[in-house]
UniProtKB/TrEMBL annotation:
This is Uncharacterized protein. It comes from Flavobacterium arcticum. The lineage of its organism: Bacteria, Pseudomonadati, Bacteroidota, Flavobacteriia, Flavobacteriales. Residues 1-21 form the signal peptide. PROSITE patterns: PROKAR_LIPOPROTEIN. Keywords: Signal.
Length: 149
């Protein structure tokens, strides 16, 4: 599930503002919660999301996006799951690609690993992030449904 990419790729995305979707990024500004994690077309699977916790632990997680500097914060506080909170760095490209770096207090330029998801169905009050995961040689989608708080 973990998508590893080089810092230079993220920097290229940040520097070349022409490739970023400013409207989508501005639309994410504010506080959000993950209302549901689903696996369309699949039976229940166990996925460790973002190398933090089981994907279902992200239901009820809080996310804050600041669009003018592409920073924010995410946190998990669901019973039976590890408590976790971290600053994040994120971007959305015109192709709908969402890049995410969980910095855990490190400077963004020192964090060389991140995650590459697809953004779908964005409205003023909701959107989805989709991660493609390899399960037994098959690609399965993990869909994180966000609702604005």
């Amino acid at each position: 599930m973990k998508k590893i990419f080089f810092l230079s790729i993220l920097m290229v995305l940040l520097v070349s503002c022409g490739s970023l979707d400013q409207k989508s990024q501005t639309g994410l500004k504010g506080d959000w919660t993950v209302t549901k994690v689903s696996y369309p077309g699949s039976e229940y699977i166990k996925v460790n999301s973002f190398d933090i916790a089981d994907s279902k632990c992200f239901e009820g997680s809080s996310w804050s996006f600041v669009s003018n500097n592409n920073k924010g914060n995410m946190s998990i506080a669901k019973g039976g799951c590890p408590t976790f909170s971290s600053p994040i760095i994120w971007t959305v490209t015109k192709e709908g690609n969402f890049t995410l770096k969980i910095t855990e207090g490190e400077k963004g330029k020192r964090v060389t690993q991140g995650y590459y998801l697809k953004m779908r169905n964005q409205t003023e009050s909701s959107f989805q992030l989709v991660d493609n995961v390899n399960v037994g040689g098959n690609t399965v989608e993990v869909v994180y449904s966000f609702q604005k708080i």
